[in-house]
Amino acid sequence: MMKAGPPTPYLVVDRDVLDRNLERMRSIAARHGVRLRPHMKTTKSVEIALAAHGGQAGSITVSTLREARHFADAGFRDILYAVTTTPAKVTEIAALGAATGAQITILAEDATVAAAVGAEAQSCGLRLPALIDIDCGYGRSGLRPDDPHLPVLGRLIQDHPCLSLAGVMTHAGQAYDCRDADAVRRVARQEVSATVAAATLLRDIGLPVPTVSIGSTPTALLADDLSGITEIRPGNYQFLDLTQAAISVCGPGDIALRVVTEVLSHHPGGHALVDAGALALSKDTGADGHYGIVARIGDAPAPPGLFIAKVAQEQGYLRGPHGLDLTWLLPVGTRVEVLPNHACMTAAAHDFYHIRSDSHAPDIWRRVNGWH
Amino acid sequence: MMKAGPPTPYLVVDRDVLDRNLERMRSIAARHGVRLRPHMKTTKSVEIALAAHGGQAGSITVSTLREARHFADAGFRDILYAVTTTPAKVTEIAALGAATGAQITILAEDATVAAAVGAEAQSCGLRLPALIDIDCGYGRSGLRPDDPHLPVLGRLIQDHPCLSLAGVMTHAGQAYDCRDADAVRRVARQEVSATVAAATLLRDIGLPVPTVSIGSTPTALLADDLSGITEIRPGNYQFLDLTQAAISVCGPGDIALRVVTEVLSHHPGGHALVDAGALALSKDTGADGHYGIVARIGDAPAPPGLFIAKVAQEQGYLRGPHGLDLTWLLPVGTRVEVLPNHACMTAAAHDFYHIRSDSHAPDIWRRVNGWH
């Protein structure tokens, strides 16, 4: 009834799968001749950021200033904070840079705000490189490449004594609305063309655009042609998940992250309760409304059709196909491994990864959560 | 454009509203003559657990063993771990009890598992009180009161040298499927009748049932008659949220928890981006699919109709009614306070509460996350 291992629920990372995912993206970047600046918002781990660069503290992207601080403390020196910076955030960025020596590149999308950020930077004695956020059709943030504000913003940044124009960037979040690889490739072409158009427009008025950066795991994995692009910023590729598998970007065997959970009880409705619920798995659902798919039972691959049908805060309802009685397959105390729908959200409630590998010793890696 | 305060996003708790919520539940427990054993899974704060008992380290309920350890370290001595205990968890419970002197009461729902838990307890030199989990119609866990396994389980627990029968308990999670107060009251009657029926059956075969425990915020707030019940275990009542308001259990003014977030930018689609997204707000949606409602802009109440329409990991899309242009109402840098749909999930990504009050000094309270 019992099995050795850390107390459940916990995250396990298959390091061999992780290493394969990291190597695949490095090859893609090399093939296209672009810099890889991995987004660390998914894994939030120093060990993984190092491994993503073959052991070096290379260029990275972060989604919070706490991540920025965590990676800067670990020796990373070139960090893109990929959420629009407001004046209120500048003091924290300045303190971070002063304490660690890291260079933080910020995002800008509005001239008035950028001017106010520049004024704050000036009062902190700071000089901030800025990328202009370009909207390539996702509609979340940034300027369309034909927006008349774009050259104004570019000029303001470049002429400001405490800002410098580092280039342009975009995120093609619409790739996650795709249902097949061809649709992802079409989005990748939008992503490239919008970003290159913005870069061209800025260069045409004499501004420097050293960086032309795109970033999403689906488009980075499937894009055919990155002409004009200098940098890619995928993040989820490190772990991958069932959402990526659903849009044909990977197979279930490429997913490096699993939630290990224990069977607690069996119920007349046909479900087994497990000790991973809404917090350990997240509430992100798969295409058919499930909260994750069972990949392993103990040390063996699971038969198909076992999934988490519903979650309470600390409990998951594990079901089989057609209400299959799970009592004999999954006695109480059995440990199962669940593939996550959305690795970024599933990992977020956890502080540690338990590392499993055929070629490395077991290990525990920390991840950093929170904001400041 | 800027406003003093901690860096966003962060949680603020209105202590005056919190105190009113805590006092209301204490009055309800006193009126019914039952013990209040608040569930700490929502707020996970020592200060709030103390305040829930008028300053004493009284009886509490927890959802993880890390919570149990955190509260035991703070002096709480009577802790119900309200998730079914398996043999694999007993060592951790024993260590916790040995280190702190706290008495952990466990949940049992199966005789074979309870016997194995008892054997583990014996090998740890531990004696564990156990409540039997009763299914009052929610269908998640526990035994129906007429299940023939119930007397077998009761007898096994009571006769085991390292277990003792503490009573019966249930959770009426189906209260959250209700759409009005009358429906909640009907669920409260199911909750009481199932639990009392189980207690009666066990007493009829000569077993002691000192505790007859029910627990959900909606039913605890609205139940008319708790005859036969000795204990209530509500948790969400401490903060309340828009889910509770939607089932008429409270009004928006009773919600003590808010997410403070800053406006980052404005977009042609009519949304303002704010720096609270899927992690800071959670992905739990309200009845009409939103991720939270704006209650305040700066220090003033917000006009109605402002809500978070969509979330990315670190960004929320704030929209107004009919695509209202928000540029002038919410300049970049404005701080807004968002009421959460589900306080248990929203609070879970945060480590601290910023405490605001008209009658107490500002403070920062820690919350405990994770599992072990």
Unreliable residue runs of chain A: none
Reported for the largest beta sheet of chain A, the result is:
10 strands, mixed
Instruction: Indicate how many domains the architecture of chain A comprises.
Output: 2
The count of strands of chain A amounts to: 18
Order of helices and strands of chain A: EHEHEHEHEHEHEHEHEHEEHEEEEEHEE
Secondary-structure arrangement, i.e. CATH architecture of the largest domain in chain A: Alpha-Beta Barrel
Oligomer: homodimer
Shape of chain A: elongated
Report the CATH superfamily of the largest domain in chain A: Alanine racemase
Please tally the helical runs of chain A, counting DSSP H or I stretches of 4 or more residues.
11
The portion of residues assigned to helices of chain A is 25-40%
How much is the radius of gyration of chain A in Å? 22 Å
Largest interface: A-B, 63 and 63 residues
CATH class of the largest domain in chain A equals Alpha Beta
Q: Structural class given helices, strands, pairing of chain A?
A: alpha/beta
- For this structure, the CATH topology of the largest domain in chain A is TIM Barrel
Termini Cα gap of chain A: 42 Å
